[in-house]
Amino acid sequence: MEIFRIVMTLTLFVAIFILVQTDRVERGQAMLGGAVLFLVLGWIFDFYVLQEAFEAIYFDSLALLFGMSLISNVLYRSGIFHDLAFKAVRYSQGNRLLILSLLILATYTASLCFNNLSVMVIVLPLTLVLCQSLAMPAAPLVAAELIASNLGGASTLVGDFPNMIIGSVARLHFDDFIGGMMVPCLVLLAVVLLHFQKYAAGAASKGLDMDAIHQALAQLSPHHAAAGRISVDPYLFKVGGWAFSLSLLGFFLAKPLGILPAMISVVAGVSMLLWGRVPKDDLFVAMSGGDLLFFLGLFVMVGGLQAAGVLEIFRAVIVTLGGNQSTTTLIVLMWLAGIVTPMFNAGPATALLIPVVKGMSSDFSGDAIWWALSLGVLAGSSATLSGATAGPVVASIMARYAREQPRDRPVVGDVLDFHSYLQWGIPISLLFLMLSTVYITLIAA
């Protein structure tokens, strides 16, 4: 009976993800439907009950996603990110290497605290327009930005959802992630800059036609580019800026004050609902409603896998390959996360492995086991275009941009698809895993 439960639940889990990947069903609805099926199967075969499903939901993670999404939405609508990006481009004066470096660094910095998809939606239009103007291939730079966004998200508690899950389960705070993850991520960011600088080779432009760039940018981002300049809404910037600043301060003070970061995030999110002038029609998107439903259903499904005994197999594999050596076990965990993540995406892979890691964490001192998981997911999410949520969206925008260009205007390397991305993603992912292996070995010793 146990083998039957394992095969049945694992098959259902994989089938739901295949359905999600085909985009035939909205992913939040698909995961909620999968959660219901898991509960029905658990009731029929007596291995998973409603109380267990409720306990499998990481509400703290959902609370962090809710609050940070709303802050990100308000600041995005203010136009401040677009303004800063435009000024950075003007500062570059057409120098290819400087443009590449500035955009990668800006993407990393913004991703420290804001949703990766929101960051890429801001940076991408400017990147495409710039590359078109400088006859510079866009695909390598966009790939570098996607990887930098993953690095920024992995550096902090609130940068991406995998770390939100890890922080909630391990009761880690903002400063814990700064100390445990930011240093290795900065080293990996330097690797990305060195690896991609060759794509900026060529003579530096004498200057940029900022009016032409602005006109092109206005077509891609019309709400923030008008009347010859990038417009910033002072009210939204003030409200969003205060909410972000106070939240960040709260995250740093949460540990000494004994406050959960999720509570701070919820208060900030509710404040944005009250004063952020979020349009009613956009409310669901602003609070990442689709993602909230997706992960709610995912947590219930993962709880079902754990109840059926599937996750015990993962734990047994890690322990066996680790050979009862703590450092080796951590490295095996990290590489396993790096392999699983491209299959399921960063958030789902973390949710899948988190019960396994939680069950093993008592055997390890310190927080190295959590950093091993986070670094493995980071490497895996950078390996393929679909490893992170922003990847497929970015590819779609790039394809649309290429189609809309006049036939007499050449498009230089502006198409990014799953196969073309692999030439950058796989080598970077392997580099990340090898360097992270050194880091885990050092901190676990």
General description of the model:
The chain has 445 residues and is an all-alpha fold. Helices cover 77% and strands 1% of the residues. The protein is built from 21 helices and two strands. The chain has helices at residues 2-21, 27-44, 50-55, 59-78, 80-92, 96-111, 116-133, 138-155, 161-170, 174-196, 210-220, 234-257, 261-275, 283-286, 289-308, 310-322, 326-344, 346-360, 368-383, 390-404, 418-444, and strands at residues 225-226, 229-230. The protein has a two-stranded antiparallel sheet. β1 (225-226) and β2 (229-230) form a beta hairpin.
Task: Please state the CA-atom Rg, rounded to the nearest Å.
Answer: 22 Å
Summarize the amount of helix as a percent range.
over 70%
SSE string, helices as H and strands as E: HHHHHHHHHHHEEHHHHHHHHHH
Number of helices: 21
Main beta-sheet annotation: 2 strands, antiparallel
Strand order of the largest sheet: 1-2
Q: Based on DSSP secondary structure assignment, what is the total number of beta strands?
A: 2
Shape: globular
Task: State the end-to-end CA separation.
Answer: 42 Å
Strand content: under 5%
Mean pLDDT: 87
| Poorly predicted ranges | none
Determine the structural class based on helices, strands and strand pairing.
Answer: mainly alpha
